[in-house]
Design brief:
Length: 703
């Protein structure tokens, strides 16, 4: 094997790497390479990514659950025949929607496209959604309604490097995407790094201004920042008049949010709010600044008002005249590896390839033509992720579920209910690389390829399309998810053409996306392999791609950004006498998403082996909690026991728990599945919790 140029399997930064051969079968050595996003750097997860290729419990053969309830090895033919037969029986008896499909934001573009096509042409079910609903959906909904386009960063990440001020709302980029910190250097040097977070996170510790807001109050804080910009005459009024549909709407919606009022709601001092607004404004082009950005992350988005919070952030950026200007703008820090591409090509409940709406007759007709089916045969919009999960096994819900690229028994909210719903199914099929918590509950498990074993494309947080390349052969009987879709398609509807070749699927994706918002028509593997940096939309092969959006117009019918009035409201599960603290969840440096991969890497597992709760010293003293000793957390949905980590890096009214752990360490047993009314994002990020010390056993007390 020669060295293979590819990209990291983890987050949407998609750091560039080179894989080099080693002596062990199936193993490689990862080395970083220079690329605009990571500039030759890697985080700890990226450096150790190759370890997941050879973990001892790697799934290498299909598994079928026998009459004794055990998962036993089977051939691909046996497993596919069994699944196809059960699907056929269920759909014959209860209709097409009795079978559902759940995808993931880590799937390649080809897999995401094939999953959506499989659901709608082979199963003909409306019940398809994916775990991106848990990640980027609020930012996507806000961007679509304000700009008419959703691309996480509508500019190259490297553009951040020249900015004097960057406002990060709910993003701990120093731990989630460490190589991206290099792009914050100018803002840090200028004292313009502004971070909204209830914790003194690693990102806060980079310097700048910390706006340590009460959990769930980001919206009120951003409204107050916008109030200062408008009331102090710092807005770009010419930009607002020329490029937005309702400049006066900004004044109306923020007039009541003076900083003193916001201080009472958010806990951020009024003077700090004014200071942050002035720093951000001074960096804006209208005031001669070098550039300013407003960026959002999951902390602001994973709330039942996440869409409105992101909308407020967009409104702030519009007030300062940032979107569409080189060196300034609004963006969403996309999380999952293919979180951008994964939501563009049809695995979302309401979308067809190219980021088309499934409710649009013209879009349905075009995509149906590409697929060789009639528009009438395509189902309509389906249930969003949480609503789909909650419907599983119910009288009018799906009786079967196929899961690809998601570990629901760790990553979904209110896990007791999720577990109950999955157990009620007649058929649960999981495609995975390791025996994840969800896979171990399945009736059928398909062993599938992972990053270094497959060809395909990914789309980074910038909308840049990248080539993923195979470096090693998959072990045992491992095949791609594409083989699952193709194998079932040939058994269920052989009249529908269904390739298993990623190159052929990408060519079809290009055609299916042509003319859509996310247009890949001009992006070919040949151009990517030649080293071209291609950002969508790229409508033709002689088109250079679009690194920056909105220079001349937004994606709305009249080209103007929409000013959407929003207002603050409390979290769905707010503090009460029996739950007087806020529980917030998030990530740590060593682990990724549900932890199914990183918890199997010895170096990462040893560095952060188990779940913990960050608790402020004042609260710990009041409740008799000792650092390192067990505590019990209880919410309206469940309870768990975990180790206390006493630190003043967290607000006194807040408890922080990472969500990467399964089993007894799964904090999503406690989180709320209340939904944002627009994005249908569940409110992972904040809920009321009761905290109490747990007495140690006598033997441990004396140790």
């Amino acid at each position: 094997m020669t060295a293979v140029a590819t990209h990291c399997p983890y987050c949407a930064l998609q750091c560039a790497t080179t894989l080099h051969p080693v002596e062990r079968p199936g193993a490689v050595e990862v080395r970083p390479r220079d690329f605009p996003t990571n500039r030759g750097g890697l985080c700890r997860k990226g450096w150790t990514a190759a370890e997941v290729l050879t973990v001892p419990d790697r799934l290498t053969t299909p598994l079928l659950r026998n009459d004794d309830g055990e998962l036993v090895p089977a051939s691909w033919s046996e497993a596919l025949d069994f699944v196809a037969s059960r699907i056929r029986s269920l759909q014959d008896a209860q209709g097409n929607d009795s079978v559902a499909v759940f995808g993931g934001g880590g799937l390649t573009n080809e897999k995401a496209y094939a999953l959506g096509k499989f659901a709608r042409t082979i199963l003909r079910t409306a019940n398809v959604d994916y775990n991106g609903r848990f990640c980027m959906s609020s930012a996507a909904a806000a961007s679509n309604r304000s700009f008419g386009v959703d691309r996480g960063l509508p500019f190259p990440l490297a553009d951040l490097g020249g900015a004097e001020a960057i406002l990060l709302v709910g993003s701990n980029i120093a731990e989630t995407m460490p190589p991206a910190v290099a792009h914050l250097a100018a803002a840090r040097e200028a004292g313009g790094l502004l971070v909204v977070d209830p914790r003194r996170s690693a990102t806060v510790q980079l310097g700048g201004i910390h706006l340590q807001a009460t959990p769930g109050t980001d919206l009120a804080l951003v409204l107050a920042l916008t109030h200062v910009v408008l009331q102090e005459g710092l807005a770009d009024t010419a930009y607002l008049a020329e490029r937005t549909d309702d400049p006066d709407g900004l004044f109306r919606s923020t007039a009541g949010w003076w900083p003193e009022r916001a201080e009472r709601v958010t806990g951020v001092p009024a003077r700090t709010i004014r200071q942050a607004a002035r720093v951000l404004a001074a960096a804006a082009p209208v005031h001669g600044g070098a550039g300013a950005y407003v960026l959002t992350g999951r902390g602001a988005e994973q709330q039942s008002k996440g869409t409105d919070t992101v909308t407020a952030c967009i409104n702030l950026a519009l007030a300062l005249g940032l979107p569409g200007r080189v060196g300034s703008g609004y963006g969403c820090i996309t999380g999952q590896g293919n979180g951008q591409g994964g939501r563009e090509h049809g695995q979302k409940a309401d979308q067809l390839p190219g980021y088309r709406s499934i409710s649009d007759p013209a879009a349905r007709a075009y995509v149906a033509g590409v697929w060789g089916v009639t528009p009438e045969s395509l189902p309509g919009p389906g249930r969003s992720a949480v609503e789909l999960i909650n419907a599983l096994g119910t009288p009018d819900g799906p009786r079967a579920l196929l899961v690809h690229g998601s570990n629901l028994l760790v990553s979904a909210p209110r896990l007791a209910s999720v577990r109950e719903r999955l157990a009620s199914l007649d058929l649960l099929v999981v495609a995975d690389i390791v025996p994840s918590e969800t896979a171990m509950l399945a009736d059928v498990v398909f062993p599938v390829t992972q990053w270094a074993e497959e060809e395909g494309t990914m789309t980074s947080l910038e909308g840049r399309v990248l080539r993923r390349r195979a470096a090693v052969e998959p072990p045992g009987l491992v095949r791609s998810d594409l083989a699952v879709f193709g194998g079932l398609a040939s058994r269920l509807r052989p009249e529908v053409a269904f390739s298993e070749d990623p190159a052929a699927i990408f060519e079809e994706l290009r055609v299916a996306s042509a003319g859509g918002v996310a247009d890949y028509a001009g992006i070919s593997w040949e151009r990517l392999d030649a080293g071209e940096a291609l950002f969508w939309p790229c409508p033709a092969e002689d088109h250079a791609g679009t690194p920056r959006l909105f220079a001349d117009r937004f994606g709305t019918p009249d080209g103007r950004a929409r000013v959407i009035s929003v207002d603050h409201r409390p979290v769905a599960d707010d503090l009460r006498s029996d739950a007087p603290l806020y529980l917030v969840t998030g990530r740590v440096l060593q682990h990724y998403q549900s932890g199914a991969q990183t918890r199997r890497v010895a170096e990462l597992a040893e560095a952060e082996p188990e779940v913990f709760a960050e608790i402020h010293p004042r609260v710990a003293a009041q409740l008799g909690i000792v650092d390192g000793h067990p505590v019990r957390m209880r919410t309206a949905r469940g309870s768990m026991v975990l180790a206390a980590r006493v630190t003043d890096d967290v607000r006194p009214d807040t408890v922080f728990v990472p969500f990467h752990f399964g089993g007894a360490g799964a904090v999503n047993e406690l989180t709320n599945d209340a939904l944002d009314p627009i994005s249908r994002m569940p409110e992972f990020k904040v809920c009321a919790v009761e905290l109490s010390a747990v007495a140690l056993p006598l033997a441990e007390r004396s140790a």
